[in-house]
Write a structure and sequence with these properties.
This protein has 293 residues and is of the alpha+beta class. It is 18% helix and 36% strand. A hairpin with an 8-residue loop joins strand 2 and strand 3.
Amino acid sequence: MHGVILINKPEALRSTTCLNMLKRKFHKTKIGHSGTLDSTASGLLVVLLGNATRLSDYVMSLEKIYRVEIQFGAETDTCDYSGNITRTCDCKFLNQAKIHDAIYKFLGHRLQRPPEISAVKINGKSAHLLARSGQEIMLSKRPVFFKNIRLISELDENKIAKFEITCSKGTYIRSFARDFARSMNCAGFVKSLSRIAIGNLTLEQAQAPDSDLRVMSLESLLENFQRVKINRESERKFFNGLAIPLENSAIINSHVTSSLANLVCVDNENFAGFGEIILHENILKPVTIIPLT
């Protein structure tokens, strides 16, 4: 069996627990994921079955959309509600205008430091294990991209505001809450967080992990990437690992903006593959080939 299952992970349930539930249901099928969620978060998990597991890195490269409530006025050691408060501040000065000004400053490319309580590895060990053992750690900043940040509920009397954020792979929304509040000389942490989309896959399509699960075809994934059409002879060569001339291919969904630089998808009824466009050689070179049957 090859395909995709979209899971609506409840808050407080670990992503690995969801995967283990599916492994028991599909015990004869290889299962993998394309990015986990914190146990304190809810929302969309993309689970891959069979040969689809080989698409994991490609799916993880897709942009994500989150909805997050930020509590202003305090900061925690986990950057969300589960942690211990480490700093408080008086946010009486905070208002809608200041939030909108800060949003514009955050759009685009940024360097972001992950939370210390995270799965980031330091010399092979998870940062959260080192931090919780009392060790002082300083994680390196990483490049992230904020495509859109939208305030979807006004700042209330408890200094809570809700945002919808479209961002790149590797973005920590907990870090966003911390850094966004600090940019306004305030403090803040995640009060609630839900992932509502990965590429064109949405939370509305997702199912409870303990339900009678529906398996989607790989087509739903491939629609997220620029796809090219090639003739039968070129298909035979490409799916046998041979590069083909670029003039033998044509992009058939130019409206899709892929996050994969120079990579395009080629597929037919039997195979799906990703190829690298090498302009100086004028070729399309196979990178990943996946049997669909």
